[in-house]
Amino acid sequence: MGRITARRRVTRVRRGAQPTTRVDVLAVEEPLEMRVNGTRLAVTMRTPGHDVELASGFLVSEGVLTRHDELTTARYCAGTDDDGLNTYNVLDLALAPGVIGPDPSLSRDFTISSACGVCGKDSIESVSTRSRFDVSDDPVSVDADTVLDLPERLRGHQKVFAKTGGLHAAALFDASTGELRVVREDVGRHNAVDKVVGWALARDLLPLRGQILQVSGRASFELVQKAVMAGIPVLSAVSAPSSLAVELAEEHGLTLAGFVRGQSMVLYAREDRIICGNGPGSEGERTVASEQEGIR
């Protein structure tokens, strides 16, 4: 299997001091070509590891898979480096009979960067896939303090980030108990989420009702879409959401929290699920804002 980290000699420059050299640890980024029933679907830039989860989670976000038995096999295809060794960078997923594959019009004839999971699609309409799960009727509720603690808990499990400082992470938490279900890291925020969803698919846990998806960066449109497609009712992000992410969350009834940073957070959609102090929107020792604080 591919390496997760690589070591490189670097030069460090400090103001007013002589440059120094040292060996640094970097997060590995390599392409993964995803095929479905032998046909190339897309190439994504990812951190090697949990590739089957990544590819199957990607197919959940495309509206292809909702159950583990809809996927029969996943195997690495021939792909070798200069030494003739398998690079494990080509993965073919075989769907069960009767399962309809991805819409051919959505096939990517380009590489999906680690920064964007939906780049190049023709229109917003083609991205906003209709989910087979309805998150708007999920009766989940969660204490505000529980949500505010999630980024720190996630950081405590980011083992590769601690070495490299170069990976995003996504984690699944149970809203009622606060139990950590799974953590995945990747150079791409959307890949980390796909790996989490693929983990759940392999265990036939979809839809992920009563769960919280915590991400280490911003909440982009594609992350909201992936949460909706997996039936996750709550998405919590350390940084800001985009305007389109908020619109999609409102449209589907997903609770969206941004700027979740220990003492405060900003609720952008379905704030009724977050219980704070004497009720939603109340003031306590920790502040939960319904509008962005300090940034205009």
Automatic annotation (TrEMBL):
Coiled coil stretches, renumbered? none
Alphabetically list the UniProt keywords: Cytoplasm, Molybdenum cofactor biosynthesis
* One Pfam family here: FdhD-NarQ
Q: Which InterPro entries match?
A: Cytidine_deaminase-like (IPR016193), FdhD (IPR003786)
Q: Which GO terms describe its molecular function?
A: sulfur carrier activity; sulfurtransferase activity
Enumerate the active-site residues: C116 (cysteine persulfide intermediate)
Q: Name one GO cellular component term.
A: cytoplasm
| SUPFAM superfamilies named among the record's database cross-references | Cytidine deaminase-like
Q: Does the keyword Cytoplasm apply?
A: yes
Domain of life, per lineage:
Bacteria
What biological process terms from GO does the record include? Mo-molybdopterin cofactor biosynthetic process
Name its cellular compartments. Cytoplasm
Q: Which family does it belong to?
A: Belongs to the FdhD family.
Functional description taken from the UniProt entry: Required for formate dehydrogenase (FDH) activity. Acts as a sulfur carrier protein that transfers sulfur from IscS to the molybdenum cofactor prior to its insertion into FDH.
Protein name stated in the entry: Sulfur carrier protein FdhD
Protein species of origin: Gordonia otitidis (strain DSM 44809 / CCUG 52243 / JCM 12355 / NBRC 100426 / IFM 10032)
Q: What is the lineage of its organism?
A: Bacteria, Bacillati, Actinomycetota, Actinomycetes, Mycobacteriales
